Amino acid sequence: MTEIIYTQVGDYLLPNLQLNEPLNAEPLNRYGMMRKRFLKETRPAHYGKMLVHEELYPHCREVQQQAQERIDTVMEHLIHRDPPPDKATDQIEWVAHMNTLHHTAEEIIFFELIYK
């Protein structure tokens, strides 16, 4: 069994804890943060367990990687199914169409990955 070493701070004894994960690890992007917030707000016991066992951030990074890959795949499929107008002749319509497709792809991954 590992002995826990404490440091006295004022009247309190605080355990000397260290994270196994380096602090300079890849930061969470939008999708990883959304997954983390979802777990924290809707499944607090599971969130706490994952946090204590240092599984939360690797899980969120995995979800964000899957989300980005899935968005790319869905966007390709949506563009193939509903091609955008010519960008050279109608840039505003092209941007509006691509934004609509991107929002559609995000709604799909929110349902499939983030909020499940």
Provide a short characterization of the protein structure.
By secondary structure, this protein is mainly alpha-helical.
Model description:
- This protein is mainly alpha-helical and 116 residues long.
- The chain has one domain (26-114).
- The chain contains four helices and two strands; from the N terminus they run ββαααα.
- It has helices at 30-42, 44-52, 56-81, 91-114, and strands spanning 6-9, 12-15.
- A two-stranded antiparallel ribbon has the order 1-2.
- A hairpin with a 2-residue loop joins β1 and β2 (12-15).
- α1 crosses α3 (56-81) and α3 (56-81) packs across α4.
- It is elongated.
Q: Sheet bearing the most strands, described? A: 2 strands, antiparallel
Q: How many beta-strand elements?
A: 2
Provide the β-strand percentage band. Answer: 5-15%
From the spread of the alpha carbons, the general shape counts as: elongated
What is the overall pLDDT average? 92
* Poorly predicted spans: none
Separation of termini? 37 Å
> So how many helices?
4
> What share of residues is helical?
55-70%
User: In terms of structural class, how would the helical and strand content be classed?
Assistant: mainly alpha
> In the residues, how many domains can be counted?
1
